[in-house]
Amino acid sequence: NANATIVSVSVTPSSGPQGTTFVIDATIRVINEIYTGQLSFGIVPPGNSAPFGEAELLVNEGAGTYSASLKFTAKPSEQEPFSPGTYNAQIAVCSGTCGSRHPHAKTLAVSGRPFNITG
Prior knowledge:
The protein is mostly beta strands. Helix content is about 0%, strand content about 65%. It has no helices and 8 strands. The mean pLDDT is about 95.
């Protein structure tokens, strides 16, 4: 059975004004091989704004420690206003598709780190 943990999650910088480029770094440890899965990066804004992010496909990831990152610029737009407040960077490692209801899909580990966007 696939098995993994999240060793660390960081957001650099931890706070910045709108327009700042943020980098989310994640380190995961695969304990038992993930044949087909995902490493998901999610950003959860404050209030009622919809979460956004992206996922990386994991294929035949053997036991070991891996690093990945997501870089984004908090430039306000119609789709994402990047309103000031506390956001949460959420990382998930999954066997299969993260969030799937498929019986063989499974979330192996989840971790998060808050960061702030100022006005």
